[in-house]
Amino acid sequence: MFAAMAAQNLAMVDVKGDYRARFCLLLAMLVIITGSVALGAFAWSGGWPVALAATVLIAIASGLWRHVSSDYGPTIAVVSALVFFISLAGEAHGGRVLPATLATLAGGGFGLLLQVALWPWRAQHPLRRVVADSWLALADLFETMSTPPDAVAPPPADAPARARRARQAADAEGALRVAVDNADRMLATAAAGSAGRRHVAGHLVELNLWAARVAMAGNAVATLLDSPPSSPSASPPASAAWQRQLAASAAPLFTGLANLGRSVALAVVSRQPGHLATCEIRLRRLEGILQAVGARAHALSARHPEAAHMTDLLRALGQRLSALEEAVRVTVERAGERAAFPLELLDLKTWQLRPLAATINLKPRPDPVLVRFVLRLAVLLAAGTGAFYWLDLPHGYWLPLTIVVVLQPDYGATRARAAQRLAGTVAGSLFASFLLWLRLPPGVELGAVAVSVFLFCYLVRRHYAVAVFFVTVFVVLLMEASGVQTAGIALERTGATLAGGLIALGAAMLFWPVWERDRLPPLIAGALRASRDYLAALVDRLARGGGVDNALVQAKRAAETANVTVFTSLRRLYGDPRNRRERVELAAALANGTQRLTRIATLFMMHVRSGSEPGAFSPAQEQTAQVILRALDALAGEVARGFPGTKNPPGSGHGSSPTTRPPNLLAVHALALDTLQLPPEQTPDGWASASLGRAAAEVRGMIAELDA
């Protein structure tokens, strides 16, 4: 049984990155799973004091795996705890530690061998997958932009459609930022190898950067189309007329960009000439669409001067797409294919841990939320282990096992998956009991195990509850095929599963919980400051000259990463109990305002990238920008104090009483924004005045939300 479970988990894990990172992670998983089985068998023979100590050790290790790797840590934590509790029950080994350990090692080694044996024969380079993920995330982002809000709900009822599309775009932008950063880290370690590796990785690094460049240019176009009036005096219907007219024409552009992203992802993985030809065809079609949309924008600029800015942005997007073709071609080129794979495989040095730096987190200080989770998990697992020991429940190990599967670091994630996990586990347990009660021939039972494993692997990312059903069938058939099945055993297992799930859900709410309402204000304040720094760096480049350097790129990345963190926390806040979601509307408004501000900064970034000259910002425009930056800095300071009417966040230095604000703290900055005299837009640099007007409107709107 242990051999089958170890082989299944090693063979199905999808480890990304170069060969050394893959091999090291798989080897680490094998050691952890084998060690968990050995620890469980040893604890079974040592009595309940040793069992409790080993259970606490497994809980601490679960937190360690989550800290070391957010991608693979949760999976390793659940699998290691699963085999530990099965081993702790003693049914599968009868106290024989060495045979159980060797069986696990042999099964896991076979699963690892299956993974490694396929590497030379698989069509894709192991590093190409991470670059393809960036382009797939790019396609998802443009997919959210391909339907104009008016097509969903015509004005004036388009506000819900805009809000819905804004949420989808925020999620897609966050996924793209994460994908590009992950690929960048993995490719950086791969580029430090041999000449063959540097050659392959260098092209992949460049193609990954092109995903970010195309996303920035396309996002700038979408931002200008979705922007509100750039000045308070502008009439919304009149000022947005050209945007509404152009949005319908631009919809095929975003659809074409989404299709291009998928085609590039497929071409970079498959390296097939036919897929490269598809990319070239899509690029030709996009050239025609860009010309049509550009002509439409040029015609509208006669009546709406702001539409001239759209012409510049479309031209910049076209330049990026023209350069993209060569980047894809050299990445897909197969001339060096004969040398690439052998060079990669010869660089497989499993004793070097340097490639793992792109995959694991080596920071010594864990997240306080994770520390609370480990303490909560340790107490619950120790109690569950003690319960099935002291109550002498033959199948009581399902109690702590279910706690491990259901309990998550935050309440929202625990609640979101609790119903799916409980439903799948209970239904799978009952169905497996029925199969065992039928006393099927061994060959049929083995076939049922194989089918269950296949369906679990296929459905785990498509329908989680159904996947849990099949993995439960797999585990029960392996564990109890040799025993006598009765209704009492099935009910005992089901009762332990239900009890474990309910205990985990209750503990997430009552036992040292972490509520997002306390964590979110500092995160939003950090995102506001990151956007402020990004905007300040852009203003400096546009006022005094200079191009894009590493400092500016890092400021952009920091702002986008901070937005990802805020929206992740906001989603968790929506999962908290209703009485713990105070001022959730304010949090959502500030999060969306911060993201829109970052997008507006991207409009400035496009002009820096096109080679700004000293004086691209007039002195009046620079003064206007400084007013906005000061207001943004003050807003971030106020948000860090906590939301009005809620308790101050821990560590804010203002106690735990409800947040109150001195009168008129932001009134000076609000008045400065209200009386801001924007430079005229009917000038060659009118795009800057219009974009500054949008930024001022966003900051003023967030101040109004905070003071409401």
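Second entry:
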Amino acid sequence: MTRSFTPDDTASYPRAHVVDVALRDGSTVRVRPVGAEDRPAIVEFLDALSPQSIAFRFFGQVDLGWAADWSVDVDYADRYALVASTGAEHEIVAHGAYIRTGEDRAEVAFTVAERWQGRGIATIMLAHLAAAAEQHGIAVFSAQVLPGNHHMIGVFRDSGFPVAQRSREGVVEVELPTSRSPHTRERFERREHIAAVAAVERFLQPRTVAVIGASPRRGTIGGEILRNLRGYGFDGTVYAVNRRVRTIAGRKAHASVSALPETVDLAVIAVPAAGVCAVARECAAAGVRGLLVISAGFAESGGEGAERQRELLSICREGGMRLIGPNCLGVINTSPDVRLNATFAERPPPPGPIGFLSQSGGLGIAIIEAASRMGLGLSSFVSIGNKADVSGNDLLEYWEQDPGTSVLLLYLESFGNPRRFARIARRVAAVKPIVAVKSGRSAAGARASASHTGALLSASDVTVDALFRQAGVIRTDTMQELFDIGALLAAQPVPAGARVAIVTNAGGPGIMCADACQAAGLDVVELSADLRARLARFLAPEASLSNPVDMIATAPAASYRRVIEALVRERACDAIVAIFVPPLLTRAEDVARELAAAAAKAGAVTLASVFMNSEGAPPAAEGAARIPSFGFPEDAARALGAAARYGSWRA
């Protein structure tokens, strides 16, 4: 029978302190103030503890009925207690409490079920107890711990709170403040980071995947996801789940997730919305760790869908599962150690250093297509849809530590927790560029965002600008700018300054580029007399040696390399734009090869190219330095300007 918790005295019960928290392994528990109704569950919790755990907690063996009475005897001020619960029956797996012992002091103690120890529950409960105590004027916690209780001593010592410890009369006495110092906050943010990374790893690094709603028919979502998983070469095991067929593409199909021969890490759900919650319950019972819900028909569709989404999240919380979606395209990890394509996109993107987050599933398909067309390599792609659980903030935490990701691109429609986004983004942007498009800038766009992915918060455009600026996030107005800046930062170093030089074989595009660079906040620097003299030794007499450097149409391909090398040697600029207009003799392929040779020796100077021929830039040679190419000088100037502003923020 399912046990529910409903406090007797709803007026005094601190409902604001009920919170779902992520643990070190990425799973979740609910932490909430205890209520009298919890007494039977606490008796079960205490009865399951080992004699040693009881002795550590109560300094000896005690009557469990008395201990349960003590555990629920609270007034939510001078006597305050929390429990951590999990599962459909709300099993209690931890209890913590403080009791005021003086005007500004209280004694604190807690116990965690043996099988739940080592996941960080005790530290989380200590933090929540300290916050509640501080609200009620308690400044200092004290605790008495038996010397053999090394685990609890370690919890206090590693909590991040400054701890004073001394041994006295057979016990270890511990004291700590209830207020959080900057060091304490840093330690808790670190734990939050570990939990977020573990949660995302369930989706991007699974070893076993089940597609629930897999279909033998091409063109169906379940059928295409199954085909993509197998066709992309997933380095793990894939199971098809469909209760109506026995085989799909010559392989066995299973009637349900409970019929699988092993517990799977990730279940991809592609069934009608009305059946998703029932499938989620089966997954929870089968021990699935992550749900990727592709199905639409949730918060984005109105009241009934919103209620369905709340039920889905509740099932995930009770089962310790994490959730991406619902209403999403899926996830991709291009790492050769994983090769996961759990989407229904027609083709995967090429591998590369960019992590891409899209809140829109439909736009995600266009993003993957554009990345393939532009040769823009992705390390991973995540469509978060309604982001009922795992959010963009969690993805930022994951990509921060992922060695295969060096640039983060985001398409956002809303913020669930802007304050957390600002804190995490500021830290991540200090080492990895974040480029974002935030839609819903107008009133009409904001309304559309709310109905599209069930947006939680669509902040004003001025607020978003300020948020991004403070966090070091590069904001773009269009998807094209997002790709342009992403391509530049993925292939080239962040500009060390705003000085730019322009090298061209045609005067008009060079002038256009100079205007666009100045408009983008770049400094089109004057070249020194010595540098101009060196350029004159190998350029045609008709060439313009100022900036832009117009080599004229007859310049051979090698002149691009020689001019760039001279600029780099002189340290004349922080970035260079090379513009090629096809003349009669010089081939684009030769220019691309010379630019790659120059880039290999350019060091910290940022290079961008503009190939104004019908085919665009030729493909880079294998192993050659990659220089992003733009269709027009203005595009290159805007991308460089944004990158230079980011470099200034990061400096």
